[in-house]
Amino acid sequence: xxxxxxxxxxxxxxxxxxxxxxxxxxxxxxxxxxxxxxxxxxxxxxxxxxxxxxxxxxxxxxxxxxxxxxxxxxxxxxxxxxxxxxxxxxxxxxxxxxxxxxxxxxxxxxxxxxxxxxxxxxxxxxxxxxxxxxxxxxxxxxxxxxxxxxxxxxxxxxxxxxxxxxxxxxxxxxxxxxxxxxxxxxxxxxxxxxxxxxxxxxxxxxxxxxxxxxxxxxxxxxxxxxxxxxxxxxxxxxxxxxxxxxxxxxxxxxxxxxxxxxxxxxxxxxxxxxxxxxxxxxxxxxxxxxxxxxxxxxxxxxxxxxxxxxxxxxxxxxxxxxxxxxxxxxxxxxxxxxxxxxxxxxxxxxxxxxxxxxxxxxxxxxxxxxxxxxxxxxxxxxxxxxxxxxxxxxxxxxxxxxxxxxxxxxxxxxxxxxxxxxxxxxxxxxxxxxxxxxxxxxxxxxxxxxxxxxxxxxxxxx
Amino acid sequence: xxxxxxxxxxxxxxxxxxxxxxxxxxxxxxxxxxxxxxxxxxxxxxxxxxxxxxxxxxxxxxxxxxxxxxxxxxxxxxxxxxxxxxxxxxxxxxxxxxxxxxxxxxxxxxxxxxxxxxxxxxxxxxxxxxxxxxxxxxxxxxxxxxxxxxxxxxxxxxxxxxxxxxxxxxxxxxxxxxxxxxxxxxxxxxxxxxxxxxxxxxxxxxxxxxxxxxxxxxxxxxxxxxxxxxxxxxxxxxxxxxxxxxxxxxxxxxx
Lengths: 462, 255
Known about the structure:
The complex is a heterodimer.
Chain A: E1 3-7, E2 10-14, H1 17-24, H2 29-33, H3 41-52, H4 56-61, H5 71-78, H6 82-85, H7 93-101, H8 107-112, H9 119-127, H10 131-140, E3 145-146, E4 150-151, E5 158-161, H11 170-182, E6 189-192, H12 199-215, E7 222-224, H13 228-236, E8 244-247, H14 252-257, H15 262-274, E9 285-289, H16 293-296, H17 305-317, E10 323-326, H18 339-355, E11 360-362, H19 374-387, E12 391-394, E13 399-400, E14 405-406, H20 410-420, H21 426-434, H22 448-454
Parallel strand pairs in A: 5-6, 5-12, 6-7, 8-9, 9-10, 10-11
Antiparallel strand pairs in A: 1-2, 3-4, 13-14
Helix pairs in contact in A: 1-3, 5-17, 7-9, 9-17, 9-18, 10-18, 10-19, 13-15, 17-18, 18-19, 19-20
Chain B: H1 37-54, H2 60-67, E1 74-78, H3 84-89, H4 91-94, H5 99-106, E2 114-119, H6 124-144, E3 152-156, H7 162-170, E4 174-180, E5 191-197, E6 208-214, H8 221-238, H9 243-247
Helix pairs in contact in B: 6-8
Family (chain A): Belongs to the EutB family.
GO molecular function (chain A): cobalamin binding; ethanolamine ammonia-lyase activity
InterPro entries (chain A): Aldolase_TIM, EutB, EutB_dom_2_sf, EutB_N_sf
């Protein structure tokens, strides 16, 4: 249905909720590239004012991607918590923002509406929120998940240790992996992007991490970020797979371009669950997302990239993931041009994910053709730490030599833990202390790393 | 006078011995929890090289002069992206020729041969440094195989798919575009070569074959020229390119 607003005698008309959402989106290059962006500053604010008066119930009556054509829309509509929605059903989008910021709307209240808000409602309200609003509300959310340790507790902050190597060389991977552990990295998971997707190559890496994990009794989980069909094949052969990974997007067509659908995800989810490898909880999935993936797959249906991204969270939520992260700056400047756009997108993604009940982490990252640098990432990292982000990546010196982009270093995570007083996942922290790697304050123990390294000698024999 | 204390190995760098196993930035040491000054500035320098490469400009005059040695017409073209800023934000414009370029191509005689194109891509530095060296090895092979060649093209603010439009305007049966790849922290001069059989606008990447990382410390030009020549011959004789061409080859080294 059409919406309109008049500013100084000029009538702004928006033909549908889909168009209104796109025009209300803060400026980013991907929406311009898709031809969806507001044409002027005034039109953008007109759209935001218009959007703020839209009733939340409108979102249940008007699908932005047709229900008949898209299984993600069907998932969103069919899993909506109508009972929980009663608390907020009287609100407009603007009213929702005010309500979210109320002191009375605390962690428990937010948790009670996680299934009552649709991704489109979360995206809509984020568009009329400032960065500080996105941080303030996300900070109130607490999403805790468990496999062999506990991630997402308030006051804690985890890292995915990402020891990638361009040729999957086992010793090359092990070298980065060990250094990461010595810097207290790896509580979210030890997760490797393989250079090749062949089951044999992936199995080799899986075995390597699993052997190390068992040898040192590390309370964490491993993951090789291969295509889900490769992981499924290995799971079915009984390989030691802890977490099952997949990249996901917010429309059925985009997911098809990734070679997945909800049925396949369900199959992989139950297969991984059946391995029964977790100890303290049952969250076995790891998903990655990122604004722009639907446009890049030519599967956005005129929906802006931030709303598409929020829709991907509905897909993630269905499978109770241990970890979800938006690889925010990886996609390039044609989607997110500079540090400002990357920062905004990351805060939106973190907010929307947390609001919908997901264990959100963030790959705080950029490519060399984006207008961004380490200072931008330091700013974003600090903002996300304040917002209560569950985890980030840990990469030697910020430089991923396999994927050729810059993310956060082991040092970055230590910086954040130190300035904000955050601790690793409790089980992992206890292990670091037990191994003599760090003391109770998270500082490295004198001689601790050498002692630990001595126990790994067999890895380096040629 | 203060006693001079002998330098002892930094206890926060026990992993130095592992550097032989990976190019990753391990064993940087720490000052407090942070990266020490030297590696911090080394990283900045690598990023500066990458940034400079993104904004580097193709030396079209010098390249055009050098290309004359191959005794083919040389055409200087431009995409519809008018600046680097626009190029970075609008990849679609980098895939299309501007009006002047279209007219320039329309003035040429139809030529159903091979069109070789040099495009700046994301690193003009890569083209300035590697393209001629590669062509000096590749052109004699093509000429002695008596393969028909279309005019050589230089195109600025180019994306890979601009080759499709150029080839279609000329009527060429095969295109090879040498183009600067996205600079990494370890290399800012990496050149890619993309080959397409019967190129025409609208094709996607699965219709192409790519040879990547062409640079002195990566894939040397001699090997790259051999690979390209092999791919060109195979593509012409089997009348295809892309995934299907890759699947059936057995002769390509290092793939």
